[in-house]
């Protein structure tokens, strides 16, 4: 049954990702220019991969994990993807508000950036998903504490995967590796299939530097990874995972992940794999 869930999710995610990307590429909403950015080489690249992957992930979860935790995973994935796309398309590039620290600082000053809106929006949808997917065991206070841990894990994971989307294929590889980490339950099995299926469909364009995930795709991938852990591991493991996510997020404000990868031979070899 677990393998069948994974296969169904993978097929649905791959087919939906490829189909949405093809349709969007034929008639880009608002015109192709709205979705075109410049990559690290200074070449034009499309953001259409992001909504295609987010939609594919949601389709995979619907196919592979009907039920409470599956619905929660879809809510987290679509919420993170939607707010990510808003930031991709509406970000004010004339300002240099970057990183979680920068956007939270702007909020403290009374300025709502698109990044700040994304932080608030993903936080809200992650907590809502956690409330839907977390079973009520014991006291209400205990349930609320679990919801807080699960919601923080989902939102933090969404942000962490997005921090890796700086080079072709990097975020897809990271999500694919995390997707095979053992976790229990139908949502975990379907999540593995959905991520692997969507990543397989998107890999050619991403590694070929025609497409990029952008915030929309990377946040959606991260949110789904967060739900696998939130609904598939014991509480102690979830708390440890949350500590790791927060530690890496805070470290990213001081240390360049790209530099660490470039200076670590085995990480660089994996990072370069499949690129042109």
Task: Please describe what this structure looks like.
- The protein is an all-alpha fold.
- It has one domain.
- Helix content is 72%, strand content 2%.
- The protein contains twelve helices and two strands, in the order H-E-E-H-H-H-H-H-H-H-H-H-H-H.
- The chain has a two-stranded antiparallel sheet.
- A hairpin with a 5-residue loop joins strand 1 and strand 2.
- Helix 7 packs antiparallel against helix 8.
- The radius of gyration is 18 Å and the shape is globular.
- The N and C termini lie far apart (38 Å).
What does the secondary structure layout of this molecule look like, with pairings?
Layout: H1 2-26, E1 36-38, E2 44-46, H2 49-64, H3 68-90, H4 99-108, H5 114-133, H6 140-163, H7 170-179, H8 186-207, H9 214-230, H10 235-252, H11 257-263, H12 265-272
Antiparallel strand pairs: 1-2
Summarize the structure.
With 276 residues, this protein is mainly alpha-helical.
- The number of helices is 12
Poorly predicted spans: none
Widest β-sheet, arrangement of strands: 1-2
**Share of β-strand residues:** under 5%
Rg value: 18 Å
Give the rounded overall mean pLDDT: 91
Number of separate strands: 2
Order of helices and strands: HEEHHHHHHHHHHH
Number of individual domains: 1
């Amino acid at each position: 049954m677990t393998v069948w869930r994974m296969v169904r999710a993978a097929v649905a995610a791959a087919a939906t990702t490829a189909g949405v990307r093809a349709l969007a590429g034929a008639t880009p909403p608002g015109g192709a220019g709205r979705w075109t950015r410049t990559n690290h080489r200074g070449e034009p690249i499309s953001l259409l991969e992001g909504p295609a992957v987010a939609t594919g992930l949601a389709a995979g979860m619907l196919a592979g994990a009907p039920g409470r935790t599956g619905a929660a995973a879809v809510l987290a994935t679509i919420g993170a993807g939607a707010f990510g796309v808003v930031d991709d398309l509406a970000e004010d590039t004339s300002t240099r508000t970057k990183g979680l620290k920068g956007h939270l600082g702007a909020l403290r000053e009374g300025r709502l950036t698109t990044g700040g809106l994304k932080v608030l929006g993903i936080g809200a949808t992650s907590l809502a998903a956690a409330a839907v997917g977390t079973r009520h065991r014991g006291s209400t206070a205990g349930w609320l504490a679990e919801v807080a841990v699960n919601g923080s894990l989902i939102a933090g994971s969404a942000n962490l995967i997005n921090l890796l989307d700086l080079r072709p294929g990097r975020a897809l590889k990271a999500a694919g590796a995390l997707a095979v980490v053992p976790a229990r339950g139908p949502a975990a099995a379907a999540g593995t299939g959905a991520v692997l299926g969507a990543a397989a469909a998107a890999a050619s364009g991403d590694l070929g530097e025609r497409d990029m995930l952008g915030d929309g795709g990377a946040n959606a991938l991260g949110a789904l990874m967060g739900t696998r852990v939130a609904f598939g591991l014991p509480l102690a493991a979830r708390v440890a995972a949350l500590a790791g996510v927060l530690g890496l997020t805070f470290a990213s404000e001081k240390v360049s992940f790209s530099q660490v990868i470039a200076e670590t031979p085995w990480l660089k070899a994996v990072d370069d794999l499949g690129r042109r």
